[in-house]
Design brief:
Blueprint: H1 23-35, H2 45-56, E1 61-65, H3 70-78, E2 86-89, H4 96-102, E3 107-110, H5 122-128, E4 133-136, H6 148-158, E5 161-165, E6 173-174, E7 177-178, E8 185-189, E9 202-206, H7 209-219, H8 243-274, E10 280-282, E11 289-291, E12 296-301, H9 303-306, H10 310-319, H11 336-339, H12 350-353, H13 362-371, E13 372-376, H14 384-399, H15 401-406
Parallel strand pairs: 2-3, 2-4, 4-5, 5-8
Antiparallel strand pairs: 1-9, 6-7, 6-11, 8-9, 10-12, 12-13
Helix pairs in contact: 1-8, 2-8, 3-4, 3-7, 8-14
The structure holds pyridoxal-5'-phosphate.
């Protein structure tokens, strides 16, 4: 019997908790505390982290910042994005990918994602190009790099700036090259749930010296390397990271390589075994994805082929001891923020020209409304036996699909 109806759950033990930390973090944090050098301008931690993270991600420069939202905004400002410019973004992503564009006073234009990879569909991007298009932000969704070969080809043809949103893709590789080194700039997040975390934080990576210099200035109140302390060259802000965050990130970075390998191995194992069940379609992985970051293990469920509705399946999986969710409830153009163009002081001329109600993103809509199932990254950090439990839970729910279909779960 399903655990949802009183049966024995497949799993009662918790999965690997997140975040993972130990003596190394404790000692390094205490060292910062006792040093009295708490800000990045006074101590070595953030600088050391920037250098190490950038090198691991195939880049000459890393500029650590307060979070993975301002990192996108700073990258857009450094790229010279201005009012009236258009920036193409996917509709299936966290809201920041698009709001960062608005905060640069430019217009996000939504190009649909591919139904199987959940990343930007290059054909949809081409259909969105206009003379105002200046940049594209491909999201490496769930940790799988977007189709960067096609996206960089479009960029070259139309002289566009590519900012990778790599918030999910620490340690991922594409044709053997690290995510974060594939476009002109990239943005990562270190928010609590991310594969590398200091509670909050972010970084911009790039191989372009001029863009790096510009990002560094914007993240530090518009200062320049040889300028006076109270000399400010561009509109900017204080987006610096603290040394406490730098200390934690340096320790977490020591763990990243092994954790990424474990996630990738377990993720591939789960994907191949879940695909054998009717109606389940794990995120498709092309040959260009040489390592998946697996910030999320994501799949689609075809309710008819599986034989039970998604909402009921999620409830049944939870009861079997498998934490899971439906992910985003809306494609971004359907968010009230976009429907009502609640952009505050930004885009003062947006009212006539932009109509997000007309954005055509059927794949994203289907994924949001009916099909997505997300498992969080830390579930993939355990032994193979943990994957066996996840598979067994899906199999059990599938075996009992008729009961699930026939029961009204609204009261449960
Ligand atoms: C795809 C994507 N981009 C950007 C962000 C923003 O990062 P942060 O939460 O650090 O501002 C997130 C965070 O959830 C994200 O998932």
């Amino acid at each position: 019997m399903l655990a949802l109806f009183g049966g024995t759950p497949v799993r009662t033990r918790p999965f690997t908790p997140w975040p993972i930390f130990g003596k190394a973090e404790e000692e390094r944090l205490l060292r910062v505390l006792r040093s009295g050098h708490w800000g990045r301008l006074d101590g070595p931690e953030v600088s050391e982290f920037e250098n190490r993270f950038a090198a691991m991600h195939g880049c000459a420069h890393g500029i650590a910042v307060a979070n993975g939202t301002v990192s996108l905004r700073i990258a857009l400002l450094a790229a010279g994005i201005r009012a009236e410019d258009e920036v193409i973004v996917p509709p299936y992503t966290f809201v920041s990918t698009a709001t960062a564009v608005i905060e640069a006073n430019a217009s996000p234009v939504f190009a649909d994602v591919d139904l199987d990879t959940f990343t930007l569909d290059p054909a949809a991007v081409r259909a969105c190009l206009t003379p105002r298009t200046r940049a594209i932000i491909p999201v490496h969704f769930a940790g799988q790099p977007a189709d960067m070969t096609a996206i960089m080809a479009i960029a070259e043809e139309h002289s566009l700036v590519i900012i990778e949103d790599a918030a999910h893709a620490h340690g991922a590789t594409y044709q053997g090259r690290p995510a974060g080194s594939l476009g002109h700039m990239a943005s990562f997040s270190f928010q609590s749930s991310k594969n590398l975390t200091s509670g909050e934080g972010g970084i911009i990576t790039t191989n372009d010296d001029a863009l790096a210099e510009s990002c560094r200035s914007i993240h530090n109140c518009g200062r320049v390397p040889d300028g006076l302390w109270y000399e400010h060259h561009v509109i900017s802000g204080n987006y610096r990271l603290s040394e406490f965050q730098g200390a934690v990130l340096n320790c977490q970075l020591d763990r990243l390589e092994e954790q990424t390998r474990t996630r990738d191995r377990n993720g591939q194992d789960l994907a191949s075994r879940l695909a054998a069940l009717p109606g389940l379609r794990p995120q498709a992985r092309g040959p260009a994805c040489t390592r998946h970051g697996y910030h999320l293990f994501m799949l689609r469920i075809d309710e008819t082929a599986f034989g039970a509705p998604r909402g009921a399946v999620l409830k049944a999986l939870e009861a079997e001891g498998i934490p899971c969710s439906a992910g985003y409830g809306f494609s971004l153009p359907d968010q009230p923020l976009f429907r009502h163009k609640a952009f505050g002081p930004y885009l003062p001329n947006a009212s006539g020209r932009l109509d997000y109600g007309k954005a055509h993103c059927p794949n994203s809509d289907l994924i949001c409304r009916e099909q997505a199932i997300w498992l969080e990254q830390h579930l993939l950090l355990g032994p193979r036996g943990d994957m066996d439990d996840i598979i067994r839970a899906f199999e059990k729910v599938h075996e009992h699909r008729a009961t699930l279909r026939a029961t009204d779960l609204r009261a449960r």
